[in-house]
Specification:
Layout: H1 13-26, H2 46-51, H3 57-61, E1 64-67, H4 74-82, E2 86-90, E3 99-102, H5 110-116, H6 119-124, E4 126-129, E5 139-143, E6 146-147, E7 153-154, H7 160-171, E8 180-183, E9 206-208, E10 213-215, H8 233-238, H9 240-251, H10 261-266, H11 271-282, H12 291-294, E11 297-300, E12 315-320, H13 328-337, E13 344-348, E14 353-358, H14 361-371, E15 375-376, E16 379-380, E17 382-385
Helix pairs in contact: 4-5
Length: 401
Amino acid sequence: FPPQLSPPSGASKWDVRQRVWDELEASGLAEFPRPVHHRIPNFKGSHQACCSIKELDVFNRAREIKVDPDKPLEGVRLAALQARKTLLVPTPRLRTGLFNKIVPPSAATKEILRICATSQGIKEYSVPVGLDAKARVDLVVVGSVAVSEKGWRIGKGEGYADMEYAMMVSMGVVQEDTPVITIVHDCQVVDIAEELLDDHDLTVDYILTPTRIIKTNCRRPKPQGIIWHKVSYEMLEKIPILKSLRYREKQTGKDVTLRDEHSDLADTNTPAALNEKVMAENTRPQTATSSAQIRQHYVENDSLNPRLEGSDVITTVYVGNIPPSLRVSELKCALREFHATPLRLNWQGAQHRAFLDYKDKATAECAVSSLKGLSLGGNTLRVELAKNQRNKGQVEINSQK
């Protein structure tokens, strides 16, 4: 390997990335999209490296394969489609879920399959896979900026591949022995100091280059799930599906305290702490059950807001796709968890929907953002401002269809 790519002692992950990106560009090995800096780099010979996956038993035995959407992995996506395997691709930056499944049209030609393997094809020929879909991934293929022969991997620094894998573990989609493969140029195979690795870093079992197949025999354990104390509020907002997984794991009794949550808990005067207090009061149990509560259209009024009726600023949020098995108490619990407790809840379970009243449009939009991507009872909820008031402050609840 090029001697200039042997990282000096004390080099950081960022130093290793920079040296690899610089070498690919300087040597003429870099391919579109350019420059390769800050990307999983595409390189000359990537298709050849991808094709060698067909020589691996772990590929030939696999029925369901998760492949990252990076350009240098296009050849693996094509090989999976040609072999009629189920191909899952992570959604961009995990904004709308975890996976999309690539579904080529029936009797697709070789040319159509080639398109399906591209970034454009991922957009045109994919369908989202819900949080509760019974996916069982047999093989994981990730891109890398650098990797060592021991299987230690460095990505581009945003942490999405590590998070995707941790989420798959949490969902039961992968097992401890599910193989992980990466595709790189030979010059991306470098020495990586073990002290650079963290417990959330994904390791790889096979490295495919244009000239070699390397079995790493890596002994370092892969992530065992989401490490919540390393997840920030910001990440939770960027990746809505994380909220659903956190809610689920909290229900099973796991500690899901976030990285920056300790400071909130220490200061009871923070907005988050005050919001928790208001939510607890809003949702305190009723001492008696009225006839209205057992009717199909269950309405919960907020005792803290006696002037709610007739208010001209209330903004309503529509919640749809509620599964038949879900109870109003479960929805209320989720609303508390996601800091989205309304002033009033209009439950229409038979119609698989509910309406949430908030004090103003800003609060309602904040609730929509918080609940985006939430999955309850097997369904991803549809959450949006009620139709009649996306552009104004008042809604006629029963007009939502």
